Amino acid sequence: LVGKPRTFDLAQIEALGVEERVYRHRCVEAWAMTVPWLGVALHRLLALVEPTAAARFVAITSFTDPTRAPGQRNHYFQWPYYEALRLDEAMNELAFLASGLYGKRLAPQNGHPLRLVLPWKYGFKGPKAITRLTLTAAQPGTFWNDLEPSEYGLAGNVDPGTPHPRWSQRSERLIDTGARVDSQLYNGYGTWVAGLYPNGPT
């Protein structure tokens, strides 16, 4: 559902204007870290393909290659990895397509060539090694929500008030020091994103 379907290479995406953004990263497993990403705002890419008035969601598809990703030989999971956002979430200024971190290109294990960074959501909402974005009218399924809906919410917003079925989300362990600190609603980014969720974060 775009006016101008298009294929991009990495150089064309980075030509939109690479910047560094330092974001907090929060895993659903209650650990956290701070990461300096390099990349471009997702809304810049989406503007080029001109979403139609019917578009409501962005479906995100990652690569499939079991020869390079041996974990994809596990047939319990439905590969490739897939995620989805509402279009208004994808157009938010914080949504970021990262091609690097710590001043260098993403390594394969970090999601080369592109990964999605959504600092107000749990990490599983940010797919690595993205190959395709598809704009749709109907809400697409997502990898972990389809597999374990009781453990992985469809919205995936950081919410200290909603526990995981197996642990609390009220605190998080910092990777660098091991210290445990209080979690923040929307991972501390509520000023920029709370307006997207008038009925609450989950």
In a nutshell, what does this entry contain?
The chain contains five helices and ten strands; from the N terminus they run H-E-E-H-E-E-H-E-E-E-E-H-E-E-H. It has 202 residues and is of the alpha+beta class.
Features:
alpha+beta, single chain, 10 strands, 3-stranded antiparallel beta sheet, globular
What do you see in this structure?
- It is a single chain.
- By secondary structure, the protein is of the alpha+beta class.
- The protein has five helices and ten strands.
- The strands form two sheets. Strands 1, 2, 5, 6, 7, 9 and 10 form a seven-stranded mixed beta sheet that branches. Strands 4-3-8 form a three-stranded antiparallel beta sheet.
- Strand 5 (96-101) and strand 6 (104-105) form a beta hairpin.
- The longest helix has 8 residues, at 42-49.
Please specify the SSE layout and strand pairing.
Elements: H1 10-14, E1 19-26, E2 31-41, H2 42-49, E3 57-62, E4 82-86, H3 87-90, E5 96-101, E6 104-105, E7 115-117, E8 130-136, H4 143-147, E9 171-174, E10 180-182, H5 190-193
Largest sheet: 7 strands, mixed
Q: Helix and strand succession?
A: HEEHEEHEEEEHEEH
Using DSSP, what is the number of strands?
10
**Poorly predicted runs:** none
Report the portion of residues in β strands. Answer: 25-35%
Number of helices: 5
Shape: globular
Radius of gyration: 17 Å
First and last CA, distance = 27 Å
Structural class computed from helices and strand pairing:
alpha+beta
pLDDT averaged over residues:
97
Share of helical residues: 10-25%
